[in-house]
Amino acid sequence: MQNFKFFLYSFVMVIVVVSFFFSPDVARGEEDDESDPISLETIIEEAESGSANAQLLLGKMYFYGDAELEQDDEEAVAWFKAAAAQGLPTAQFNYGVCLETGRGVEKPDPDEALEWFMKAADQGFAEAQLNAAVGLEKRGKFGPALRYYVQLAKTDHSGALRKAATFFERGIGLQSPQPDLAFEYMYRAAVMGDVRAQVRLADYCQRGIGTNSDPQRMLEWLWLAAGNGDPEAQAKLGFCYQQGLVVARDLETAVKWLRKSAEAGYAPAQVALGNAFLDGEGVQKDTIEAMKWFQLAAKQEYGPAFFSLAVAHTIGRGVKKDMDRALRLYERSAELGYAPAAYNLGYLYEKGEGVSSNLKTAVKWYAKAAKNNDPNALHALGTLYLEGTGVGKDRNKAKSLLQRAAELGSIAAQQDLLTNFSEAQ
Fold it and tell me: Which DSSP state fits 95?
C-alpha cells in the first residue's frame, strides 16, 4: 500500500455552462407601424373583423396598458391567442410567453408554451427559436434543440453559436461529436466579442478540439477574455503563470490574476489563491488569509474548498487540529464529487488514523473516488482486492483496477502490475 498523500492543491478548470432565460416580456414585433398612428377605435374594429396584425397590436396595448386602455392581462392573452391562431409569429411568441409565465392565464403551461414557441421559431422568429431550443433541451430533446440553436446561430446570435458549439463538441443530439463544427461555431462567437466563447475557444486550442493543439493561441484567447474581465479566464491565466505553461513561471503575476478572479467570486481561483497564501508562493505566507479564501469558496459549495479546509484541520495547518471536523469536511467534499477527498477518507478509515479502523467504510470511499478515476484510489482498491483485505480476494478485479490506475499515471500501480501479474507468474 502506498504512503498516504494529502493533496494540498487542486485547481479545477471549471467551464461555466451558459444559461438562457425565457423572455419575461412580450415582443414588439415588426408588425407595428408607429409612423402612421391609427385610432383605438379603428384598431378594435379591425381586430374584431379578424385582422391578425390589429389583434396583435390590441393585445400588446392591453398587455402594457398603452393608449386609452387599462392594463388587462386576460384581454391581452385573448387577442394574442386570436392572432397566433392565424399564424402570426410575433403573436405566437407572445402567447407562448404568457403561457410560460402564467400571465393572463389560469396557470402556467410550459408544454403548450413550447408548442407555440416552436410554431413561431419555424417561421424564423429569433426570440422564439431561443425559447424553443431551451425548452426542448430542458426536456432532453437534444436533436430538435440543436436544430433551433443552429437556426438562431445563422443570425449571429453569440449565445446560440456558443451553445451549438457545445452540442457539436460533445455530440449532444448527434450520432457522434463533430469537433470541426464545434470549433467553427465557437470561433464565430469569440470573434464577435463573446467573452465566454473566448474562454471556451482557449480550451479548444489547448485540447486540440477541431484544430491542432496550440498553447500559444490558447494563451492569446485567455489574455483577451481576461482583459475583458472574465473570472475564469483570469484564473486560468494565473494558473499558466503559476505552472509556467506557455509563459515563464512568475508567481507574483500568477497571484495578481488569481486575486482578480477570486475577488470576482470565482471559487477555483479562491482555492488557488488560498493555497498560494498557505505555501507563500507569490505572496507572503499567511494562513489566516488562506483560510479566508477557502471559506469563501466553501460558501459556494465548491468541493476542493472543503477539501483544503479538511486538510488544514487534519494536520493543524493554520487552524487547530480537529479530526472530527476534518472528517465532516472531507465527507462534504466527497459528496460534491471531489475524488481526492473520498480517497483521503478511504485511507484514514483503512489505516485508522484519527478514526477507528473500518475496512468496509474504507472500501466504500475508495470505490467512490475510483468511479471518478482517481489513480490513488484505484491503486488502493486494487491492492485490497489483491490481498483480500476488507473484500473478497479477486485477482482479476485487482488487475483491472491496477491497470486503470497505471494508465492514469500511478507508478505504484505499474510496479504492482509487474510484481504480481508478470508473464512469469
Answer: H
Long-range contacts of 146-154 (CB under 8 A, 24+ apart): 146/172, 146/173, 146/174, 148/118, 148/121, 151/121, 151/124, 152/126, 153/185, 153/188
Residue 62 grid cell: 392591453
Amino acid in the structure at residue 11? F
- Per-residue pLDDT tens over the stretch 282-308: 999 999 999 999 999 999 999 999 999
372 φ, ψ to 5°? Answer: -95, 20
Compute the distance between CA of residue 382 and CA of residue 396 in angstroms, rounded to an integer: 10
Cell triple for residue 42?
379603428
Sign of the CA dihedral 316, 318, 319, 320? Answer: positive
Alpha carbon distances (Å) from 247 to 166, 250, 373? 28, 8, 30
pLDDT in tens, 136-146: 999 999 999 99
323 Cβ neighbours under 8 A, 6+ residues apart: 313, 314, 354, 355
Low-confidence ranges of the chain (pLDDT < 50): 1-24, 30-31, 424-425
pTM exceeding 0.90: no
